Amino acid sequence: MKRVDVAIVGAGITGVLTARELCARTPTRSIVVVESGDLAGGASRRSAGLHFPRGATPRARAFASYSHDYYAQLLADHPSWPLFQLDVSVVAGAARAPVLSERYLDHARLVRGGDPHPLVNLPADSAVWQGTGCHYADVPALTRLLAGQLRDRVELREGVAVIGLSPDREGCTLRLSTGGTIRAGRVVLAPGPWLHTGPWKDMVAPLGARVKKIVALHIDQRPVAGDPVLVFDDEDAFLLPMVQRGYWLFSYTCQEWDVSPDTVSASLSSRNVAEARDLLRRYAPHLRATATSGRVFCDAYSPQGAPLVEPLDPAGRVVFAGAASGSGYRFAPATAAAVADLLTP
Ligand SMILES: Cc1cc2nc3c(=O)[nH]c(=O)nc-3n(C[C@H](O)[C@H](O)[C@H](O)COP(=O)(O)OP(=O)(O)OC[C@H]3O[C@@H](n4cnc5c(N)ncnc54)[C@H](O)[C@@H]3O)c2cc1C
Given Cys at both, which of 30, 190, 251, 256 links 4, Cβ 3.0 to 4.6 Å? Predict the structure, then answer.
């Protein structure tokens, strides 16, 4: 039986950044990351990777602020890594000014005024705010780069599923699909949307997290360098200029709940396309015809929207980290830090 200080289940952006944070705080700690599929093969693979300095609750704002500084430092340390800085142009009902000033952090330097972006048809009673401080990342590529740096300090087992989890007062035993076992002092569960399918499902159920489909359309129109991300705040939707990929990505809030990552279709449905085009009709009508492709997956959502970092057993041997409600990339550094706070004496 292998023995480690910490076993992390799931090698998406949350699991990998958690391993990085734990290593940074206690370099001598032995860590294994167990991943049933490929590194960054879950929700992280499909992520649009948008970070904006915004949060709907005080906890979300604290997480967003921490992550903002973390990613800024990461980019300063690794200027060639796939993080691409952006300004932001927010469209919202004029009456929502107080909500915006509460939700957007100072990092965004949001100021009302200026012209809407040429793609945007400003609805009646709406106004425009301009700001900065956003970026988007190639999340799977970034996750692989981060994991690559950890290889000599962290054991990463890909293609190995955790099929049993038995915590006790001194630690936790993990049973693996390969037939082996790992005995860990602490276990961090970072399973993304697989929170109801693993051997942890009964332990996780009281958290009240649910899994929702996420849909983003790829708009077949080339953005140019300097285009800002266009946020339609009333709808929780955005148009992201993916300059390196040569298209705009339109993300809207799909309301298909309680899907499973193992069965959710990777294909856009006619309903998804119709919903997206309906919103585009309001904000950018001439893009509707070019919204013909996209990406579909799902993510775990917490009851309050901000990520959950919670011990699941009386001895605190198993900690859940995730359910970041479609914002797991932008919250991941803060989630990892919150896990490390729990695990570091
Ligand atoms: C289309 C789309 C667009 C998105 N856009 C954004 C965005 O713009 N900004 C943003 O911040 N967030 C966005 N998100 C959300 C974000 O991508 C996710 O919240 C984030 O990637 C979750 O990362 P994770 O590491 O927690 O989970 P995942 O990346 O899903 O990783 C979990 C891993 O656990 C593994 N696993 C599961 N069960 C087991 C088991 N039994 N044993 C071992 N391993 C197991 C899985 O294989 C998986 O690799 C988007 C998501 C989608 C789907």
Answer: 30
pLDDT in tens, 39-84: 999 999 999 999 999 999 999 999 999 999 999 999 999 999 999 9
Using a cut of 0.90, tell me whether the model's pTM lies above it: yes
Same domain, 323 and 234: no
Q: Which stretches of 56-192 are DSSP H helices? A: 58-77, 97-103, 139-150
35 and 153 within one domain: yes
> Best substitution site from 36, 158, 172, 174 to test ligand 1's pocket, by max atoms within 8 Å of Cβ?
36
CB-based pocket (< 6 A), ligand 1? 9-15, 34-37, 41-44, 46-50, 161-162, 190-194, 198, 214, 216, 295, 297, 299, 322, 324, 326-330
Give the total number of structural domains in the chain: 2
Q: How far is the CA of 124 from the centre of ligand 1 (A)?
A: 37
How remote is the C-alpha of 38 from its chain's centroid? 17
Q: Give distance in angstroms: CA of 249 to centre of ligand 1.
A: 18
On whether both 332 and 311 belong to a single domain, the answer is: yes
Under 8 Å between Cβ of 82 and 142: yes
The amino acid present at 1, given as its one-letter code, is: M
The CATH number of the domain where 176 resides is what? 3.50.50.60
Of residues 293, 298, 237, 289, the one with CA closest to residue 268: 293
Q: Which atom of ligand 1 is nearest to the CA of 41?
A: 49
pLDDT in tens, 218-263: 999 999 999 999 999 999 999 999 999 999 999 999 999 999 999 9
* 106 and 224 co-located in one domain: yes
One domain for residues 40 and 178: yes
